[in-house]
Amino acid sequence: MTTPDFEHALDALAGRVSSLRAARAAYPSDLAPTLDAALAELDTAAELLAEAREQLRKSPKRGGAKKDGGAQRELKLLRQVFRAFPVPVIVLDGGGVVRRINPETSRMLGSPDGYLVGRSFPLLVDVSRRAAFRSHLTSALQTGQPAAFETRLAHQGRTHTVQLAMIRLTMPGEPQQMVAAIALPIEVQLPEPGARRPEQSDGALLLAAAKRQDLLVKMATLLLDEEALRRPVALPRATRLLAAEWADWVIADVVRDGVPRRSAVMAPKDQPLGELARQVESADPATSQVVLQVLDRASGVVHEMVEDETLLGFCADGPVLTAMGASSLLSVPIGCADGVLTLVRTHDRQPFALADLAVMQEVGLQLGLAVRAQSNFQSRSRAADALSASVAPRNLPDIPGYEAAAVYHPGSSVGAEFYDVFPVAGGWGFALGGAAGKGEEAASVTAMVRGGLRVLSVWESDPDLVMRKVNEALVAQGSGLFVMAVAGFVQGRTIRLSSAGHHPAARVRNDGTVRFVAGGGVPLGIAGEAETQVETLTVPPGETLVLYSEGLVSSRNAAGEPYGDERLADVLGRCAGQSPSTVVKAVEADRHTFSEGQVWDEIVVFALRGV
Questions:
Q1: CATH class of segment(s) 84-185
Q2: 390-610 architecture in CATH?
Q3: Which Pfam families does the entry mention (predicted)?
């Protein structure tokens, strides 16, 4: 076939392919005749390529400069034919690596030749057909016979069902044989020539940037939620959010004891992948190249096209990425190498880009801060629980002849206030108090005073002697803190009180009358010789003795007014004859209303009623 004849045949083929496209658009419900004709045209294209190759092989050899000129003309003709071919053609080497693509291939896949050349073509092939592709490629190379089969190609968020034909080529100047893969689209309408890629339009770029910003806002809101601090929900919540909007698979690995351990796996919800998800969960992240790389470098990586399917390690079905059907992968550190967050997309989605890596780096940083904050919060919470247990009994014991109840609200610094009920020689004792300070030091002083009152009461029958000895011990410690406290010993209907700078107790009689006892004295820890106020009371049945902390009466409303003793007396008067639990709950509810739920200092209310 002469060159003009070849060019005429090529033009005729292009015209017939164009007619087939028009027929497909005009009769979408009757594709069988169009498909049969398209396959026939594919055979014609294969024959044309084979004949062009044969002509190049048989071209006469000339000597000297004419020889070089003739070879150059033949190569130029081949390049023109390759570029003008009306269907996608990809030249592959023996390993399936893309060596050249024609403009029709660029238009179909949505990527320029500079992006695809040098990449592994099987990564574009549907996972279920990759093994078949490799077999056909090997067969075409070894036997020289054309091979054809149907498959899907996916790239840049586009999916095409194609009839793929492969023909062995011997390229001038190439030491190894090549394969020409011709992809005839069956189900996808190709974009018009010269059309701008949708993902590059200004509107699409702006929308993508807004989506990334929206993700950061959603992630920050999610991680700053109080529940994310109280419970270990930050990682599962973050992976669910990312799986819903940004990836098909999301994996979080957290470093514990210096070793990465799988913490959370989110799989696609629209596929029956339960068993695969369990395999991914059980896979050891310490065997994952990408996880170890991110931890070692403390920086993220993005693979727009996954070429090494072993990057994420192995599961029972082989490489994890192969089982997932992965085409694109992104991994970023969680915090300062506290873990790794990995996102995977399959062939049906647009691959990750550098802009996605930047936003996920920020997500990983936020997630790391949240995980650390959660750990610190839980450590402090456990410490606070321990302090609370050291300053307040879990349950009040039964005091013969009395009913007792109490409420305790921690403030901004747990541990400064305490209350206690304990047995003493011949009866029962109770104590209430608080250190003038905040933080761990105040809590430790409070715990010492509470423990001292409880222990010394075993040997002393007078609460005032106990208070004085505790004062000596506190002064000897030299903490510089002082404690307001009151202690009472109950024997029958008699209660002996010793006050060291504490608020006076309130007596609520059956008729609603409220009277305050003397109270007073000097707080413990100020001077070596304690100055206490001692008082002996008789509490008949029906009368209630109420003790309370500084935090109650000093609570303030929105106008800055203190709760005060008078408001407390009004509430107590309305509770005459009620049980101690009713009394403390009424005081608690009234203070809550007064201060609009705000609690700054610890609040203790203790009620003891004769029965």
A1: alpha beta
A2: 4-Layer Sandwich (3.60)
A3: PAS_4, SpoIIE
